[in-house]
């Protein structure tokens, strides 16, 4: 298992792949935009075709933008489902829908292969430092097998049982919580500002005391400073997650008004041309605009 | 200044007063329900009349439930405004409206006295451990004078300038953030539960990783376990704060939909007989009820 | 064209079919629950198989509960797409998604057949009295051809152009407006009641004056009296429409917070076991419950 | 009783006063901006001082912008409470808070005078045509006495009992319903527009069919055309009513999320400099802005 195919060299995938190379793995890599692989160093080989990159492999890791891209990589023309070895493992680390994981789990199983859900929490810098939090769900035996691989990329692994979709539920739930926290901070700091206070001072106070968690410190600083550049995570991707979380809520018959609020906040951002802006701007910028500042 | 009158021996006031006694201060204490003072030990004297408790004093600390109670203590029949020494300092630590602080600051000033705003963050256990975070605003000279007193009760003092109302704005903004975080967690954990996951496991994961702040750990556990007893902070008091925050938002022309959401959540709790339930139940119980679990 | 197949004899379909029979048409009828056809009188024939009911027909009218049922009738095993005559017309009167109409229009066209979108506004009594408002969109020539048929069922036909999905957009938009009006009245009458007024008197006042439209008179009376029996339109069907409207809003990048509000209101009703209750109860009952009355 | 003092010659008050003059009453009139009285014709006298305009009168009608202005006219320096005859009647037709009516009722009573609550529904053109709907509450005997006066100004009088505040509750509830209807139409027409339909055609359809009430026809046309000039009713006045309705909801422990939605919508309009824009623009313009059109 020292040979791995890694598909998806975006802001997150690139440093994750690099850590695997650094740990002694040989990687076949594929990215839609091949030039992204120029950021890698060490023992790897770049492919321009997914099937070729995966042929005869035992492990493939996917870190892609959404369900559609993952389906295309797995099941499309030149997809990897048909060319992996029997018994091969697909480690699916993208933020995708629970439905997609259930479906792909079954499709791999039908081929005598395995699918492990393993989405991550953390930003690109955390990925570079191998400080990601990794959530897993799926077959116990497979989790044991790939544990050494996951440990290279993350600081801790949290397991959520056998249901392939469970870790996706956790990931989407977490992204909802992050968006809700951004709305919370944006309303709070804007209210303080409009009451005559210094919003950075207020943000610092909360980030140092009762809300001293990474989410509140990091996003809190960006929101307080209204600093929306550089773009860390696009509003369009944030909205995708709000949409997937809403679909989960629909399937579970779960009314979630705060989820609806951030969903509409980001949808408004998209409708106003902000798809490529940072999701912090999508949410906090909307609060500012409503408040006239 | 080793003599202080302390008014309000509730869940918070009692341990705060005890810490002052332990530090060598002599306290005159008053509480509407006199029996509360039985919880104190050491050098103090109980009064059944505010004016008598404050006559000729240089420092009075108030820790009361709301604007109305504070106004009554300060300006009512037997109120302390008329009996304090010239130059005396009123340290106002209750969670009250910015309007009240502006007004009382002026009224004390007209008497040659001083008013310092100093609300706190922290629960009763934090008060007992002298681990409160204290926010101040008002006259610089007065802050210097009372610093030794405040340091006995808190782990850190954060100052927000000269405007008497500023620290109240921070306190109410913070309580809004706490309520919004409860709504966030309640929706998140309920969504996870309805998707088949264990809500406690999900809460623990977030409390240990990206949301590892006291608010998320402490309230997160209560919300995950649906544990609403014993009552730590009443829904009626939580709603009071949502109402004061809404008034601030109105005055500042600040549309705040998430604030409106938690305001309505708690108002619904009150309308359904939950005024004396814990505010966690007011919010998280409402999310559960809407979700049919 | 005096032979028509009518599929779907529910609360709406039955009186619509009866009006066609009364006007001299011979009907082949199909309903999943065959017993429903016992309500019909005159010249018609009951089938237990859709394909047989449609074989060699030139006109088929569908009045079904949702996309899935319509797809099954049209494209499923024993579906009618394969058995209609070339040049045949499918008049699609159900409340379905714009996507479904676009898709079925194309599928009929590929078979040399025609698809006309023609959803209706009105309750079962309006259907019985041939007082429905019918919205159409699709091919001009086909509209002209079926005009005599539609005029038998409705008091007026409103056309929305050539795009097959347009009339569905109008229908779903209208059902959103009805749900929003129910929320409006429920909040208004409950507020008046909690302020000590007679909610029926208040409802009558508005229904006779500034809000003297059928929606406000009819639903207003039900909401004022909290009269939720008999069930006229199920909450599960109302939610289906809220869901389809939300999908339209998503596709159009349209943030719609009031739509989200009624969507969550009905979803909460479903989550609490109210799928088969009237949608008026789903919305107005939720307002009452939140208000503790 | 052929002598009446009329205070407040705004868009509504002016035509109402004219109708009284036309019916043979002699009017003493007062308006803060005296020039407004130039619009009147016939038997009236203009005063620049309220007390002089009311001295020795038996009937005074007030039609003012808000609680504050009414209080000033009634109780301020040169206010009329002190100068009216014993037994005089104050017909209070402004849109004010229930609290204000309860308070003024008591203050007049203490002077041996009477206070009748009589707010109106209708726009300036309806006032000119004497087509207002007038809601009353208060003392039965007084209602009988002033009936001839009210009938000159309105097409119908609806009575809501003895409680002085009841008619205010109805008026504010109605204004909430109008604002909610504007939000409903704005979201509906914008959704239809973004789905490719003609929003005017959609508005016309609903205004002619299921929503054929004045509110939907009149405001519907403005919203469909995005026609916000001339200003008929200022957003600042609309927000005042949303604020008063929210205060009623607070007092009655009534969670009203749709009221919160339109409240925030108008507050955002004010925060963005739109206080003097029409309330239709305040609401519908906000929906458009969020939708990026």
Automatic annotation (TrEMBL), chains A, B, C, D:
Keywords: NAD, Oxidoreductase. PROSITE patterns: 3_HYDROXYISOBUT_DH. Residues 3-158 form the 6-phosphogluconate dehydrogenase NADP-binding domain. Transmembrane segments: none annotated. One of its GO terms (molecular function) is oxidoreductase activity. It comes from the Bacteria. Its EC number is 1.1.-.-. InterPro entries: 3-OH-isobutyrate_DH-rel_CS (IPR002204), 6-PGluconate_DH-like_C_sf (IPR008927), 6PGD_dom2 (IPR013328), 6PGDH_NADP-bd (IPR006115), HIBADH-like_NADP-bd (IPR029154), HIBADH-related (IPR015815), HIBADH-related_NP60_sf (IPR051265), NAD(P)-bd_dom_sf (IPR036291). Residues 166-279 form the 3-hydroxyisobutyrate dehydrogenase-like NAD-binding domain. This is NAD(P)-dependent oxidoreductase.
């Amino acid at each position: 298992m020292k040979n791995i195919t890694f598909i998806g060299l975006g802001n997150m995938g690139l440093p994750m792949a690099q850590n695997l190379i650094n740990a002694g793995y040989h990687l076949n890599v594929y990215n839609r935009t091949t030039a992204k692989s120029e950021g890698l160093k060490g023992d790897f080989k770049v492919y321009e075709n997914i099937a070729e990159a995966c042929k005869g492999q035992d492990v493939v890791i996917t870190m892609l933008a959404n369900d559609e891209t993952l389906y295309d990589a797995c099941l499309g023309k030149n997809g990897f489902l048909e060319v992996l070895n029997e018994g091969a493992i697909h480690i699916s680390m993208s933020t995708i829908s629970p439905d997609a994981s259930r479906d792909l789990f079954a499709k791999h199983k039908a081929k005598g292969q395995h699918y492990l859900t393993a989405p991550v929490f953390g930003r690109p810098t955390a990925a570079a430092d191998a400080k990601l939090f990794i959530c897993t769900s799926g077959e116990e035996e497979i989790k044991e097998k790939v544990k050494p691989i996951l440990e290279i990329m993350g600081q801790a692994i949290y397991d959520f049982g056998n249901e392939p979709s469970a870790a996706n539920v956790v990931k989407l739930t977490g992204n909802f919580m992050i968006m809700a926290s951004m709305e919370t901070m944006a309303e709070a700091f804007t209210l303080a500002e409009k009451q005559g206070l210094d919003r950075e001072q207020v943000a610092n106070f909360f980030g140092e005391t009762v809300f001293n968690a990474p989410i509140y410190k990091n996003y809190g600083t960006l929101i307080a400073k209204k600093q929306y550049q550089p773009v860390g995570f696009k509003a369009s991707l944030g909205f995708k997650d709000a949409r997937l979380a809403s679909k989960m809520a629909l399937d579970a018959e779960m009314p979630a008004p705060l989820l609806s609020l951030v969903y509409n906040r980001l949808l408004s951002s998209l409708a106003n041309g902000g798809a490529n802006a940072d999701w912090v701007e999508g949410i906090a910028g909307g609060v500012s605009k409503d408040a006239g500042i």
